[in-house]
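User: I'll paste a sequence; please echo it back and then give the predicted structure.

Assistant: Echoing your sequence first, then the prediction.
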Amino acid sequence: MPRALIAAVLSTALLGCEAASTAGVETPPPPTAAPAAEASPSPQTQAAAQTSQTPQPFDSSKAWEHLRQMVLIGPRPAGSEPLRQTRAYITRQLAAAGLTVEEQPFTVQTPIGTVNMINLVTRLPGRRTDKILITGHYDTKLIKTSVFVGASDGASSAAMLIELARVLKGRPHEFTYEFVWFDGEEAFCPGWDECGRPGAPDNTYGSRYYVDALKKANAVSTVKAMILLDMVGAKDLKLRKESQFGAAWLNDIFWTTAKKMGHGGTFLEGNGDVGGDDHEPFAKAGIATIDLIDLADYPQWHNQECCDDLEHVSARSLQIVGDVMIAALPEVEKKLLTQK
């Protein structure tokens, strides 16, 4: 993950950091309720079918398995064959849940040359066509000095989105939910800002392309809020309010919801600014955003301490974030309906 506020040069990452193993990995907790058998409506009929389906609980064992499968693929930098395999995995899982995936391909110039990238998009139609985006990135940092499998930084957000899409497709909602897996969030150079130029950062390639496409389509106003998940898998997860680009009202809803649910030990008060992430281009376009990220308390970030692997992430953390997301979204919708 990015961040200007952590200035370590990544080329000093530990040599020989091994790929993730399952040794010492915790067993995922059971879901909060037993899932009922569910239908798989087509995207065209989902909005009408929502009210007739039994709401599904967020199941961290499913999210954990998605995370584990991505880690087993290995390092997944933008433009690589392993990232293509990751896209195929995400697409298969969403298809199994009855959801259709759209690819948003684009080509960018990077410090290592021309790279082809692809954002993935799936939608849950609401009563309105205006959107709430639920997003995360699915690529991992290109690190040449160690094996970086990105269990929290990349896999946790990508896995969470798959499970959230499965759960939310059976719940009524006013706004259309659009899930986006961003490609190319990570910088190719060791530092977040090391190789960027004015107007051409070496990071957030997928989110910047998505916002540019919104602008070209004159559709920025159709996106009412953007929720970003990034690095939400750490065993001792500590989330703080990112306020540099995050909207205060969105932070307030999520932190109030978390405290009501007894998760004040995970959603901490205090500043959590990280110096830039995939929500930045949306905020600069005038869209309300929130970034749920644990950067400062995760020393395994980019393998600064070996390693961001399965031993350092937790299904319990995924469950906490998933439960808070499910509970907070109706409050987000209520707030949007009262705004003029």
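The radius of gyration is 18 Å. The chain has one domain: 57-338.
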